[in-house]
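Technical annex, item 7. During the second reporting period the consortium partners agreed on a shared format for inverse folding records so that results from different sites could be compared directly. Each record opens with the tokenized structure and is followed by the designed sequence. A conforming record, contributed by the partner at site C, is shown below for reference.
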């Protein structure tokens, strides 16, 4: 049974459950939604990420969460915390936040609503000293939200990842301290 980590006005943020891979595959794994994340994944890749996320939650008390729309009960995205684990990153082990919203819910404010709850969880119960978020320069909606959340661009932590197509190869980073977060609240 998944744990409810947070609730917002419109969303329930809950942990990953054993049966979620097929639903994620159906509603989130589209070419448009996954365009800046290396494209759609195979079911076994999603299941492996879920297993990794469940292990992270059991070990550290945080992971990625599914966003369930209160009005419909439908999965509309995921957001959460993981540890930076890209071998090319210079900030391995930092608490990384991220999010993904299904296409028919874009531009409704769900990403911001969910990520604000995740940041509160990260600086509260999780006790993260600071947070980072990674994206590509081409993913304008993502880095615009990072800026709206008060995150600061960290060019010194950018890196190139040859696993991505040329337009998404340069990974850019933003960071946020608890003090920066609290000063804007």
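Designed sequence (site C submission):
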């Amino acid at each position: 049974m998944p744990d409810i980590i947070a609730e917002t006005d419109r969303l329930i943020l809950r942990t990953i459950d054993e049966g979620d891979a097929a639903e994620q595959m159906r509603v989130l794994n589209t070419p448009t939604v996954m365009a800046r994340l290396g494209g759609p994944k195979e079911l076994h890749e999603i299941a492996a990420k879920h297993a990794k996320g469940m292990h992270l939650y059991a070990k550290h008390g945080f992971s990625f969460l599914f966003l369930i729309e209160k009005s419909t009960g439908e999965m509309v995205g995921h957001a959460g915390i993981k540890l930076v684990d890209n071998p090319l990153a210079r900030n391995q082990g930092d608490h990384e936040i991220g999010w993904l919203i299904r296409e028919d819910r874009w531009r409704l404010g769900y990403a911001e609503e969910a990520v604000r709850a995740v940041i509160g969880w990260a600086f509260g119960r999780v006790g993260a000293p600071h947070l980072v978020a990674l994206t590509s320069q081409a993913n304008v909606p993502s880095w615009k939200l990072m800026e709206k959340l008060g995150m600061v661009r960290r060019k010194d932590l950018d890196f190139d990842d040859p696993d991505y197509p040329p337009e998404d190869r340069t990974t850019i980073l933003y960071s946020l301290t608890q003090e920066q977060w609290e000063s804007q609240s």
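The two ends are 33 Å apart (CA to CA). Helices lie at 20-27, 43-60, 110-126, 140-148, 178-183. All partners now use this format for quarterly exchanges.
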